[in-house]
Structure formats: C-alpha cells, structure tokens
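Trying the structure run again after the queue cleared.
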Amino acid sequence: LYYTSTMAAALAQPTTYGCSPALLLSSKAAPLSAAAMAARSKSAPGESSVVTDVVVHPIVLLSVLDHHTRRQEGAGRVIGTLLGKRDGDKVEITNAFAVPHAERGDEVAIGKDFNRQMLALHLRANPRETVMGWYATALPDENDPNGESKCIADTSSLIHDFYAGECDDDPIHLVVDTSLQTDAIALRAYKSTPVCIKNEPLANMFNEIRLSVKSSESERICIDRMIGSNSAEGASTNEDETAALQVSMERLLQMLETCSEYVDKVVDGTVSADDEVGRNISEVLNSVPRIRPEVFDKMFNDSLQDLLMVTYLSNITKTQLTIAEKLNETLGK
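Done. Tokens:
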C-alpha cells in the first residue's frame, strides 16, 4: 500500500504535486504560476504543454458506475486509473479500472501493487494505452443541507501526487457525480496547478477543463442495445440481431467506399492531400491483421461451426432439463 499524509507532504522535498489542501477553482481558464509552467515544460516533444480537451468513452463511465455500485459499505467514494492516449492538447480516455484505497482524515492508502499489476494486464491487451490520470466519484458533503457532493476533497491532492508518478504527463482527474441530485450523472475533468510561495508548495488548485463524451461504432451499438432492452418494445429476437448486423455492415461498407473514393481523388490530384486524414487512414489499415483470403475463410468457417455446435449443445441441455422437470413432476404425483 502507498501511504501519504498532509504532514508527510509538507516535510517532503518541494514538488509540484501532493501538497494539501486541494483548492477547487471554478473558472475554467486561469493563469499558471511559474512553478506550474516549469513542471509542464516536461511534456513530450511536439505536444502542447497544456491539455484543453478531454474526451471520455462510455465504457469508462460504465466502469466507474459499476465500481461505485460494488463499493464496500461505508465507503465515501471510489477511485481508479484512467487509460487512454494524448494527441496534442486533447486527451482521449478509452479505458479504466478500479483501484482499492482507504481514506482516514488527512491520510490516504492506495493499492500501489494492485494498480501496477492491473496496468500490466491491460497493457498486454492494449499496448497503445497509457496512464492518463485517475477517476473518483464525488464525495458526499455531510455539512451541506441540500445533500450535494464535493467534487474535490483535501485528500485529492495526495491521490493526485501518486498518479503524477504513474503518468508521463500531468494527470487528468475525472469526477463522476453519482448523487443524482439533478436526475443526471455529471462528469467533470480537472487539471491541477500547484500554488507555491517561495518555491514551496502550499496547495493544489484544480482547474476544470472542457469535457465531452464520445462513443465508437461498437460502443454506440452496445449502448443502443442496452437502451432498447429496457424499453417495452426491446424484445431480444434473432431478427433484430440480424437487422442490426446488416445495418452495421452497410455503414462499414459505406465508410470504406468513402475512404477509397477520397484516396483515389488524392492520387488523381482532384483533392489536396490532408496529412491528418492520411495518418488516420494509415492507422486504421495497420490495425487490421493481414490474412490471406483462404485463411480467413477457414477461420470464419471453423468459428461458425464452433458457434453452431455450442448452440446445438445448449438446445439439447434445455431439452434435457425440461424432460427432467416433467419426470420429477410425474413421479412426485
């Protein structure tokens, strides 16, 4: 476990993170101190020194809500690690996983080893993702008569200090308000700016930055399916699944034709080339494994046969269970 406290942070060597208390700045644009500018000058070459946009995928929100639902009894809030990638001044959060922690007063204990083990497992499946920061649910404010929650607590600086050592750049702090005071789940993203006097850190000032939710094609299909399953007309039928698959394949074919038409126009000189579009097309093509058509057909047929076999066995099992229930009812009489 990784332990830290306000007193330990105050006695430690001067650093740009991990100093309590945490201050919440309501304004989304604030001037940076000299120490903050010096800290942010460590950004990778070619990248903007300040992140201004954060894009969150729905899978991240679902992971946070699932973690909050399964939290231990009496826990004030839950935290976890955010994974994604950075492109200039924009950060895209594509994944997240829970991290155990405990808070007592001004002290915080974080599952450091658990975090690194989970990160290693995630990187094996998604090697392009890196640690972008951490998430937390809003902390209930016992002193607020309206029952509203606090997005930033004093211990947030201590947790931010831990993730500053895990990230290659300044960490992003994502706050999910699960209090449902406004019949909605509010999302907020923050960047931390150190408040220093005579090169000594006194507090962390959290600045809210622009945030948006973006879903990929596969995520959109899943979300539409989840919404449809909760409606009265959302019956799960094979015809609906086949229709959804057909619509998805038609959209995929349309996008491929659009990309092919664009490339042909660039080659012919009709349209001027766009470097960013070219990089995106190249990245998509490189992500597709190169398989010969005959090998792909064999793999598809083998998988289809396995699926049919599993379906056949499941139907046999259901039939046997039904017969067993009928026999038990008959013998019981």
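Residues 1-48 have pLDDT under 50 and may be disordered. Worth checking whether this holds up in the mutant runs.
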